[in-house]
């Protein structure tokens, strides 16, 4: 069992060693863990903000390069 800490709520969870997420964290430490509760809360709040119409997602414009 691998112990991981949520980056938002600082709760400690246990992941099975064979879990793909545990392997990702073990092999690339830059990846962080977010517990399912925090992930659901953030996705719900983001969807609420999108529904207001005032939400902008700033992305680089797609350049059509016909090389």
Number of helices: 2
Quick check: average pLDDT? Answer: 89
Radius of gyration: 17 Å
Q: How many independent structural domains?
A: 1
Which spans of ≥5 residues are poorly predicted at pLDDT below 50?
none
Which bin fits the share of residues in helices? Answer: 25-40%
Give a quick account of the main beta sheet: strands, pairing sense, barrel closure: 2 strands, antiparallel
Pfam families: DUF2197
Describe the structure.
This protein has one domain (2-52). The chain has helices at residues 20-27, 36-52; strands spanning 2-5, 12-15. The protein has 67 residues and is of the alpha+beta class. It has two helices and two strands; from the N terminus they run ββαα. Helix content is 37%, strand content 12%.
Q: What does this entry show, briefly?
A:
InterPro entries: DUF2197 (IPR019241). With 67 residues, the protein is of the alpha+beta class.
List the topology elements.
Elements: E1 2-5, E2 12-15, H1 20-27, H2 36-52
Antiparallel strand pairs: 1-2
Pfam family, one: DUF2197
InterPro entries: DUF2197 (IPR019241)
């Amino acid at each position: 069992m691998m112990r991981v800490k949520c980056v938002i709520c600082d709760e400690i969870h246990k992941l099975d060693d064979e879990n793909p997420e545990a392997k990702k964290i073990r092999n690339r430490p830059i990846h962080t863990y977010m517990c399912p509760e925090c992930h659901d809360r953030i996705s719900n709040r983001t969807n609420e903000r999108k529904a207001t119409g005032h939400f902008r997602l700033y992305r680089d414009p797609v350049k059509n390069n016909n090389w």
